[in-house]
Amino acid sequence: MTEKRLLILDDDPLIGKTIGAIARSVQFDIQITLNAADFFAQLDQWQPTHIALDLVMPDMDGVEVMVELAKRECSARIIISSGVGTRVLDAAARSASEHGLPIAGVLSKPFSPQNLRELLVQAVSHPGAGIRPGSPPGQLGTDPVDITVAEFAAAVDNHELELVFQPKMHCGTGNLAGFEALVRWNSPKRGLLAPSAFIPLAESNGLIGKMTREVVRMALHWFGAGFQPDSNTNTDDSALLEKLTMSINLSARSLDDSEFIEFIVEQCKQAGVATSSVVFELTETSAMEDPVASLDLLTRLRMKGFKLSIDDFGTGYSSMLQLVRLPFSEIKVDRSFVMSASRSEESRTVIRSIVELGHSLGLQATAEGVEDEATLQFLRQINCDMAQGYLLSKPLESEQALAWGLKHLGRV
Ligand code: C2E
Ligand code: CA
Ligand code: CA
């Protein structure tokens, strides 16, 4: 059997044949089915690598077919087609992706043979480039089952928290812009856990301040040891290094800790890191919690030279208010828009507007969750300042991230 088997479901035999002919021209084996029963029979027998699915058929519903595919944990990459218009198609693709289905792309009818050919070729050459649900990389545990407050507090004291670092680049030049620190809990008992497994617990039990201090300490130590100029650094390298930033996520609950600013200023001194190289990322919702206290603290942070970024922009409510009211220096476009940019006109429109909004307020714009080259091209076109995502690199362990950074700075 070849590696490229396309199973087509379309109630219109002519369209089925047309799709089939185009797929054959790019070396796919094909099977055409006209109804769901035949489709699922072929699915089991023939094990296609790809599926072309018509969304709207008179006697059945393409969305239901997708739900069934998800139940069967179908791993074939799916191209959804329909004449219903791109908004509906995009919504269907999103719903499929939320069900865990690998979507290769959407095709609005009438389509040109060229469109379909490109989708098929792309689906084979970049099997990772389609949309998939935003799961954390590797085998990270995300389930917050039965973690107790005491256990987590002890874990922080025992230095079981670790950081991974994800690089960020300047879209225009491709140069390294800096890194974002992302926390992991490497529990001897539970394995490696993602932040979603323990941050909510830390936030609601008064442990977030303790955790944040540990994160700040580790991030600045790593960054200071690897990426700060010292007396042996030549002038060119110093200029490069001075521009790099270390981004750290901050939960709003850390903001009511009045000694926090003194703590980070002190940590910067110890690590030899300039406060202007440090960016604190806040989510919209977290920035909102106590409006007055957060405004005070964030303003004080800025006055010390730290930079501030509004994270996951576009997902919360009241975002405009936050953006205008608080002293941010960067806006981060939420990855849900960016990950779908290459196949969704709507997402591209949202990204463009957020970048323009940021620029008009004098902020730098970063797109996170950049997974394919087409999206990076688009970001360059709209003058987005920075990009972060799997296309460039997944989050890396400290040693690897250091090596990655030095290589990209041309220093090794
Ligand atoms: P975030 O700040 O939006 O971080 C980006 C998340 O997107 C990370 O997930 C990262 O691994 C993932 N990601 C990066 N590039 C891509 C991509 O191209 N595609 C996809 N699908 N995902 C990508 P992670 O590490 O699981 O972190 C989840 C969230 O946990 C973070 O979202 C942040 O809100 C929070 N978090 C992480 N570390 C800390 C921390 O030290 N303190 C606080 N308060 N929150 C943290
Ligand atoms: Ca972040
Ligand atoms: Ca984010």
Low-confidence stretches: 128-137
Major β-sheet annotation: 8 strands, mixed, barrel
User: Which CATH architecture of the largest domain would you pick?
Assistant: Alpha-Beta Barrel
Count up the helices: 17
Amino-to-carboxy terminus distance? 46 Å
CATH 4th-level superfamily of the largest domain: EAL domain
The CATH class label of the largest domain is Alpha Beta
* CA-atom Rg in angstroms: 24 Å
Characterize the overall form.
Answer: elongated
Query: What is the tally of beta strands?
Result: 17
Helix content: 40-55%
Strand order of the largest sheet: 8-9-11-12-13-14-15-16
Name the average pLDDT.
88
What is bound: which ligands? ligand C2E, calcium ion
> What is the percentage of strand-forming residues?
15-25%
The name of the CATH topology of the largest domain is TIM Barrel
The tally of structural domains comes to 2
Structural class: alpha/beta
